[in-house]
Design brief:
With 237 residues, the protein is α/β, with parallel strands linked by helices. It has helices at residues 36-46, 64-74, 98-101, 126-135, 163-170, 188-191, 206-211, and strands spanning 18-21, 24-29, 57-60, 78-82, 94-95, 110-116, 137-146, 155-156, 177-178, 228-230. The chain has a single domain (52-201, 216-234), classed as 3-Layer(aba) Sandwich (Rossmann fold). Keywords: Methyltransferase, Transferase.
Length: 237
């Protein structure tokens, strides 16, 4: 696989060193650990989705570099949460179970909610979770989220069993669902009004995308690096 000769620079931390992941050359920032999806989030929050100063931010499963970026953006109004806060030392993460605690979120409160590659892990109705998160947004707030996209078909499984049995069936990271590319309209698109096609070049220049190590195959096709951005008014149900 060839890699663009463009000089790479992380738009989150400014780092210029990137490391390989299996089958994906130079995608993880060596400085802050960001991946394509986190850099896409930052690009949009630096551009068309830039919030007001002091925005209230809720961040699920907080990525280290993006967490620092959002904390600075919020000027103290930042809240990081996860079901296993011990996995995020030093980030001040509060315990939060999306299946149990999502209904406790105050409505019309957050200007930015970020959740990358979380929905595949939860053992409950992902649609109810997304809709309740949308209700927690302010009128101009934005919910930004990404999900695994492997192939064309949608898959959704919640099963009984021990942790070991679930890991054996769904993999070590327990991915209970996959949002197939062919069914985005019939799944996420049934919940929110979203563009019929995905095109990052509407929001950033090709030069910006290349510099941030976001490869062209992510620009105009739904992938695991695609970040969907929706507001309260986009809810269809």
């Amino acid at each position: 696989m060839t890699v663009d000769a463009t000089r790479l620079r992380c738009n989150i931390c400014g780092g210029e060193s990137f490391v390989d992941m299996p089958g994906r050359p130079k995608v993880r920032c060596a400085g802050c650990g960001s991946l394509e999806r986190t850099r896409v989030c930052a690009l949009r929050l630096q551009g068309d989705l830039a919030p007001r100063p002091g925005a209230h931010v809720l961040h699920f499963a907080p990525e280290r570099g993006l967490s620092r970026f959002l904390r600075d953006l919020s000027q103290g109004n930042y809240r990081a949460v996860d079901i296993a806060p011990e996995n995020y030392p030093g980030l001040g993460v509060e315990p939060f179970d999306l299946c149990r605690d999502v209904f406790s979120l105050p409505e019309a409160t957050y200007d930015v909610i970020v959740m990358n590659h979380v929905l595949e892990h939860i053992e409950c109705n992902y649609s109810a979770v997304l809709l309740r998160l949308a209700r927690a947004l302010t009128d101009e707030g934005v919910l930004m989220f990404s999900v695994p996209v492997e192939g064309e078909e949608f898959r959704d499984n919640i099963a009984l069993g021990t942790d070991a049995e679930k890991a054996g069936r769904f993999g070590a990271f327990r991915h209970y669902r996959n949002f197939g590319r062919a069914f985005i309209g019939q799944t996420l698109g049934m919940l929110f009004d979203m563009p019929a096609d995905y095109d990052l070049t509407r929001y950033a220049t090709e030069a910006q995308l290349r510099e941030a190590a976001i490869r062209p195959h992510h620009w105009r096709k739904v992938t695991g690096a695609s970040v969907f951005a929706v507001r309260r008014r986009d809810v269809r149900v």
